[in-house]
């Protein structure tokens, strides 16, 4: 038993679950397995957790959280919102969504709107992992940045580990016997490109495999660029693996290889990134891809936001969430 007041966070850590899951287990909510509920309750009992003084994630308070996004398509925001809802739970915390379309004037307007609605905190998210300007001067409530980190190191940011995900992709290609691996990415100005190239090169170093062509190929986040890049690779010389920094690029690569009668994965293995299922599962062959685990990003961002709202001292900086490989037919 721990001395002092035991928190819900400590119970969650002891049970190996998220804070939101711990809250649901202790309050009989959510669709959890009996084993998970038992593990959480056993952990609470062992730690001496007093549910009567802290019955829920919010200590019994009803909160309103604003979500400010620049993602007009919802490709990135929806899984982050789903993860946040996992943490917030039904009935405890309501979310208000505002989408600025990347327009600073519209964003400032929505910040004022959320403040007028007296939100208890705000999650700021976007459509890329590029750093964005801090809203500290405009916001006087706890704020956490998800996917798109703040440029202010004092702000709390939660992002996918892009470099680690790229490393995992190339390691998978190496493990399947590939020895000459190309790296095809988006624009060099994007942080995602830089991080994914760095992770790919780190995996190649000491692996026995070489970087096909001697350098990464930078272009667009598009199938058209993937097709063009694959054509360049075919003209330049032999290769047996391609790491594509997005699934859109990977689909273009696959189309080009198919048009040139190159068999995937028999002759060339291809791994994408983002695990955009509408593309990865529809491609032929289906694309092995790295999932950014955006739902986990949303869960963690929500956990840190609630802790801040409830008065916990949460240090600023960037927290990275591990990516995972989803194996399909292309590698």
TrEMBL record:
Keyword Disulfide bond: no
Molecular-function annotations in GO: DNA-binding transcription factor activity; transcription cis-regulatory region binding
SMART domains: HTH_LACI
Protein's name according to its UniProt entry: LacI family transcriptional regulator
InterPro entries cross-referenced by the UniProt entry: HTH_LacI, LacI/GalR-like_sensor, Lambda_DNA-bd_dom_sf, Peripla_BP_I
CDD domains, alphabetized: HTH_LacI, PBP1_sucrose_transcription_regulator
Organism: Salana multivorans
Entry-linked PROSITE patterns: HTH_LACI_2 (PS50932)
Membrane-spanning intervals of the chain: none
């Amino acid at each position: 038993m721990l001395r002092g007041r035991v928190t819900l966070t400590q119970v969650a850590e002891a049970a190996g679950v998220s804070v939101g899951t711990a809250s649901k287990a202790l309050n009989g909510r959510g669709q959890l397995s009996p084993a998970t509920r038992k593990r959480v309750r056993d952990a609470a009992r062992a730690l001496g957790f007093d549910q009567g003084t802290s019955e829920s994630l919010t200590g019994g308070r009803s909160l309103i959280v604003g979500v400010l996004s620049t993602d007009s398509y919802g490709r990135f925001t929806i899984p982050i919102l789903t993860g946040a809802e996992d943490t917030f739970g039904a009935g405890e915390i309501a979310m208000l969504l505002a989408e600025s379309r990347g327009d600073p004037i519209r964003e400032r307007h929505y910040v004022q709107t959320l403040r007028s609605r007296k939100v208890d905190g705000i999650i700021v998210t976007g459509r890329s992992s590029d750093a964005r300007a801090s809203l500290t001067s405009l916001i006087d409530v706890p704020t956490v940045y998800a996917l798109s980190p703040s440029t202010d190191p004092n702000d709390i940011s939660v992002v996918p580990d892009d470099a680690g995900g790229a490393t995992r992709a190339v390691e998978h290609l190496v493990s399947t016997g590939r020895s000459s691996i190309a790296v095809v990415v988006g624009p060099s100005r994007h942080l995602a490109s830089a991080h994914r190239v760095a992770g790919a090169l780190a995996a190649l170093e000491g692996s026995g495999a070489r970087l096909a062509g001697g350098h990464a190929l930078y272009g667009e986040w598009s199938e058209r660029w993937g097709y063009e890049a694959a054509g360049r690779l075919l003209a330049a010389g032999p290769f047996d693996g391609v790491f594509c920094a997005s699934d859109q690029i990977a689909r273009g690569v696959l189309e080009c290889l198919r048009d040139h009668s190159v068999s995937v994965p028999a002759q060339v293995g291809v791994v994408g990134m983002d695990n955009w299922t509408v593309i990865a599962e529809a491609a032929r062959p289906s694309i092995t891809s790295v999932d950014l685990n955006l739902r986990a990003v949303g869960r963690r961002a929500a956990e840190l936001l609630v802790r801040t709202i409830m008065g916990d001292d949460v240090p600023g900086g960037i927290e990275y969430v591990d990516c995972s490989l989803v194996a399909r037919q292309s590698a």
